[in-house]
Structure formats: structure tokens, C-alpha cells
Design a protein that fits this description.
- It is a single chain.
- This protein is an alpha/beta fold.
- It folds into three domains: 128 residues, Nucleotidyltransferase, domain 5, CATH 3.30.420.40; 133 residues, Helix Hairpins, CATH 1.10.287; 129 residues, no CATH class.
- Helices cover 53% and strands 10% of the residues.
- It contains 15 helices and seven strands.
- It has a five-stranded mixed sheet.
- The longest helix is centred in the middle third of the chain and has 36 residues.
Length: 411
């Protein structure tokens, strides 16, 4: 008996509030359809209905598009009850849906397309493996990214408000969200708050907030710039002052929360015991982003599969015997972006010393350009090499060891 005859195939269309499952046999015949709520207490209902179609010697296989989002709870439940669960790439189910002469769009049809992909590509579909630590790390990284994005928006709003009150504010501090700068904006949101303030008193304030890093000259400079800007106070000024102070408090909160989240991310990364931070250009934030997108490295049997997953491996486009390999625009674009950022880091040169950050990769990059590749193509080669190295580091939990390179070649 062919192994596909020993199973029925359950495709599940996943949603926030409810799921739809369609069951087919190995002959592509629809056996049944089940609708159930997306909560653990309802999952036994799915199993009970599926068992109605499992004859002696027949076992069900489940196909889920999203085992890290809305379908994660179901995937965990099924795996804990020893059912085989496959992860179906949404691009495959989309292609299946579009392959019919007349396309449809409904929960039932989408679930059936997932089941068809499950049956047709059973051998190549990866097993679902929603491990808690990788899922949790991904949620933490998402939280940090949201906070950073929100912080950036707040800083832009602060720039706008400061431009009205302090036209020369960019000359006050290097960063408008530094500790001293935020303390200044909060206490003196507009120039009229500085009226009557003596230079000695103002200097003492800056010295206290900057931990003695600001000088008397800095205080005098700010007071002079404020005076040279002219009168900026307008009607309803107190409301605009409140707005600046509110933005400052929000920025301080966001920065504090980012620090807390990064601390927890660091604790999670220690549990995984990867040593990605030993490579130049990778800090805890970058390492956690890599691990969150890659997940369990063991689901990739080799580095080539990881490269394809990240959309870094070239794709052949040809017809009639003519064509060439081209850059892929598929794969996990978030992971692709991380590898791109990391590749740029590896080939950068220090402005002061003129020494490459990573001499080995810099020489490799220059060598590819010498071979005739464009800078973009050479950078893709660096990305591909990084995939091999990071795959090995994660697979074996080893540190990065740069091969020796003569100093004259590194400069």
C-alpha cells in the first residue's frame, strides 16, 4: 500500500476568532468540513469530527499555514496529542487557489486548497515545530521594534515643537533625546521659562543632569542662542509647553521600556546559548532578530536551505535554453534585510583608522568586485557567505573565529 493511502489530509484555514477545516482523502475527494472556534477548549471538537473519517489503519495529517500566529495554539495542541502537523507556506496555497480556471475565495475553499497542497507536497513540507522559546523571543523582538518605531515618531514630533519655541535648538545638544536634553526640554519647554534665570543657576542645573559633563560654556551658549532667536512666545503658549513636556515624558517612558525589553531579550538569548555576538557587527539586538526569524536551526538540514528561506539563494529564470540566475525577491524578507544590514557592517571601513571592521570579509568583497561583479552583487556574495557561517555557529553553538590575515592586507 502506498504511504499516502494510509492518511487523510486535513487542511485548516486559520483566523483570529475561528478556523475552518476541510478533510480530503488521497484521491482528492472531499470527506467533510468542520468549523470551530480558535480556543483550546474547542480543539477536541475538531479531533472528534476528524476521527469519524479515520478507518482502521488510517491516520490524519494536519496542514496549517501559520503555526506562529493564529494557528499556533492549534499546532501546539495537535503536537501534544501526537498528531503529525505540517507547515504549509501561504505562497503554495495561494498558487493552488489560482491554479483553477475559476478562482474562488471562501474559508472552505481556502482550507481545501491547504489540504490539496498538504497531499501533493507532503514529502517536502516541513514539520510544524512551534517551540515556546523561539515564539516568545519573536514576540519580544516585535515588542522592541514597535517601541523603537514609536520612539522615532515621538522624536519627530518633538523636533517639530522645538522648532517653534527654540529655532536654534539643534545647536543646544548633540541628541535631542539625551538625558540632559530631555531634562532641559521638560523644565524649560520654551524660552520664557529661562527669563530671570542666572547663568550660575542654569549651569548648576546642567551639571547636575549631565553628571558634570556639561560646562559653563555650554550654559552660556544656550542662553546666548535663546536670546539671539528673538521672542517666540505666542498666545496659548502654556498648551504648547505642556505638549513638549508630554512628549518628553513619553520619550523617557519608551526609552526605559526599550531598556527593559532588551534586558529580557538578553536573558532569553542566554538560555539558547548561541554565540552570535562574537562576530563583529552583531550585538544582542541583531542576534535576537536573527534567531527570532530563523527559529529552530535544526529545521534546516543545510545552509543552502536557510539561504533559500531568506531569499538569498539565486533563482534560475530561463526559457528555450536561454536565461540566467537572478536575485530572488522571495523568501523571508525580514531575515533578508537583517543579512543585508549585517553584510554592510562587515565590509565597512573605520573613518578614523581606515581599517576594515572585518578584514576577512572586506578582502572577500573586494575580490568579488575585482572578478567583475557589481557592488550589489558582491554584497549578495557576502550575505551568502554569512548564511553559511551563522548556520554553522547556530547549529554547533560555536563562537566566531576569524581566520588570520596579514595586517598589510587588512588596511
Amino acid at each position: 500500500m502506498h504511504y499516502k493511502l494510509k492518511h487523510i489530509y486535513v487542511g485548516v484555514d486559520l483566523h483570529k476568532d475561528h478556523h475552518t477545516a476541510v478533510i480530503i482523502d488521497c484521491w482528492h475527494s472531499k470527506l467533510g468540513e468542520i468549523k470551530f472556534e480558535n480556543k483550546p477548549s474547542e480543539f477536541p471538537t475538531l479531533i472528534k469530527e476528524v476521527k469519524k473519517y479515520t478507518k482502521k489503519g488510517i491516520t490524519p495529517i494536519f496542514g496549517l499555514e501559520d503555526v506562529g500566529g493564529y494557528g499556533r495554539s492549534l499546532a501546539v495542541y495537535l503536537l501534544e496529542n501526537n498528531y503529525l502537523v505540517k507547515e504549509v507556506n501561504s505562497a503554495l496555497s495561494y498558487a493552488e487557489r489560482k491554479s483553477y480556471p475559476t478562482t474562488q475565495k471562501s474559508d472552505s475553499w481556502d482550507a481545501k486548497c491547504v489540504a490539496e497542497v498538504l497531499l501533493n507536497k507532503l514529502e517536502i513540507l516541513p514539520d510544524a515545530n512551534p517551540q515556546d522559546i523561539y515564539w516568545t523571543l519573536g514576540q519580544m523582538v516585535t515588542r522592541r521594534n514597535a517601541l523603537v518605531k514609536s520612539l522615532s515618531a515621538l522624536k519627530n514630533q518633538l523636533h517639530t515643537q522645538l522648532n517653534y519655541n527654540y529655532p536654534s535648538y539643534k545647536k543646544f545638544f548633540c541628541d535631542i533625546d539625551g538625558v540632559t536634553a530631555l531634562a532641559f526640554w521638560e523644565k524649560y519647554p520654551a524660552p520664557h521659562h529661562l527669563k530671570g534665570i542666572k547663568a550660575e543657576e542654569f549651569t548648576g542645573f546642567l551639571l547636575e543632569k549631565s553628571r558634570n559633563s556639561c560646562s559653563t560654556k555650554k550654559a552660556e551658549t544656550i542662553l546666548e542662542l535663546t536670546k539671539s532667536d528673538g521672542e517666540t512666545e505666542r498666545e496659548y503658549q502654556e498648551y504648547r509647553d505642556f505638549l513638549i513636556q508630554s512628549l518628553v515624558r513619553d520619550i523617557q517612558f519608551k526609552k526605559e521600556e526599550i531598556s527593559k525589553v532588551e534586558k529580557e531579550i538578553s536573558n532569553l538569548m542566554k538560555r539558547l546559548d548561541f554565540k552570535l555576538e562574537t562576530m563583529p557587527g552583531i550585538n544582542t539586538v541583531t542576534a535576537s532578530a536573527l534567531v527570532a526569524e530563523i527559529g529552530d536551526i535544526n529545521r534546516f538540514s543545510n545552509a543552502n536551505k536557510l539561504a533559500r528561506f531568506a531569499g538569498i539563494a539565486p533563482v534560475n529564470f530561463s526559457s528555450g535554453g536561454k536565461g540566467k540566475d537572478q536575485k530572488s525577491k522571495q523568501g523571508n524578507r525580514t531575515l533578508h534585510g537583517i543579512f543585508y544590514f549585517l553584510a554592510v557592517q562587515q565590509v565597512q571601513i573605520s573613518k578614523g583608522s581606515k581599517i576594515p571592521r572585518n578584514p576577512v570579509f572586506y578582502e572577500y568583497y573586494q575580490g568579488k568586485i575585482t572578478e567583475g561583479k557589481t557592488k550589489g552583487q558582491a554584497l549578495v556574495c557576502v550575505m551568502r557567505r554569512l548564511v553559511n557561517i551563522i548556520y554553522g555557529m547556530m547549529k554547533n553553538k560555536t563562537s566566531y573565529l576569524a581566520p588570520p590575515l596579514p595586517q598589510k592586507e587588512a588596511v
